[in-house]
Design a protein that fits this description.
Layout (H helix, E strand, L loop, with lengths): L3 H8 L1 H6 L2 E2 L2 E2 L2 H15 L3 H13 L1 H6 L5 H13 L7 H6 L5 H9 L7 H6 L12 H11 L5 H11 L3 H6 L3 H8 L9 H11 L8 H15 L6 H5 L2 H7 L3 H28 L2
Antiparallel strand pairs: 1-2
Helix pairs in contact: 1-6, 3-4, 10-13, 14-17, 15-18
Length: about 280
């Protein structure tokens, strides 16, 4: 039997995958509060923390509506968890009414179970292929790119990732072409910093004889032509786990050393100028 506690955590992951982060925090306050609340509950799964988590979910429901995220898994997992704490059944009508979600979303969340065609079946229906196995990774990537802006795509992709977290990662690790196409579109929002770093390490040259000029050109190419939607080499390096991966490459060690030297030189020049100005 699946642990309800892990299911509660899993049911919220679609929101955290799609919400934007800046400097380690989500840009929307409600999402950040929800993340902190679920983290508190992970560390200390008490009845009081569960009630706080339920309130945080209510406050963030408008984002589930905005990004067309599935709500049924949340209802099911939270109902199971409420039983674990010997709490009465959750009054979802009240929870939803206290949110800022639209009446249409509230009605749908209360009356419609999440039973939709999965992503791969949906994509296959748009081809003459009969099975997923008949699709090459290149074909699957092209289908994702072609249909990514269609209604319901985000919801289907998030559901796919909840069941198969490495779905997109496996595609970008199949070929450099898959990687560059996915990383340069909004699909990159569904990849973690660590996954992007691993793909970069796989495909970027790691010649110890590279000059700093060549390294700078490669990094600039990554920033301008491959990475997108707020991702850059600098943002990846600010993520400790992604940095550990990039640091395996001589190219990125050289890049960081040169960047540090440049900053030190600029700071020294600035300090010298200020010193002269004060004379």
């Amino acid at each position: 039997m699946k642990d309800p506690f892990s299911t509660v955590h899993q049911s919220l992951q679609p929101l955290f995958r799609i919400a934007t982060e800046r400097n380690g925090k989500y840009t929307y306050l409600e999402v950040q509060v929800l993340k902190e609340t679920i983290d508190d509950y992970l560390e200390n799964p008490t009845k009081e923390n569960f009630i706080s988590l339920k309130k945080a979910v209510s406050s963030s429901l408008s984002f589930f509506e905005k990004w067309q995220l599935p709500f049924e898994p949340i209802k099911e997992s939270f109902d199971q968890e409420a039983k674990q704490h010997a709490l009465p059944p959750i009054n979802w009508s009240k929870v939803l009414s206290r949110s800022t979600a639209s009446p249409r979303f509230q009605f749908s969340a209360l009356n419609h179970a999440h039973q939709e065609e999965d992503l791969l079946t949906w994509l296959l229906s748009k081809t003459n292929k009969l099975t997923q196995g008949a699709l090459s990774s290149k074909e699957l990537t092209e289908l994702l790119l072609k249909h990514q802006h269609e209604h319901g795509f985000s919801k289907k992709l998030i559901q796919q990732l909840s069941e198969q977290p490495n779905f997109l990662f496996d595609l970008i690790m199949k070929s450099a072409n898959n990687f560059s196409k996915i990383a340069s579109t909004s699909l990159s929002l569904y990849l973690t910093d660590e996954q992007l770093a691993a793909a970069i390490i796989k495909y970027i040259p790691d010649d110890e004889e590279l000059s700093y000029e060549e390294v700078s050109e490669l990094v600039e190419h990554l920033n301008n032509n491959t990475l997108s939607h707020g991702r850059s080499v600098s943002t990846l390096l600010r993520n400790t786990h992604a940095k550990d991966i990039l640091d395996q490459s001589n190219l990125f060690r050289l890049y960081q050393n040169a960047e540090h030297a440049n900053r030190t030189e600029l700071e020294s020049e600035s300090s010298s100028y200020q010193g002269r100005a004060n004379i």
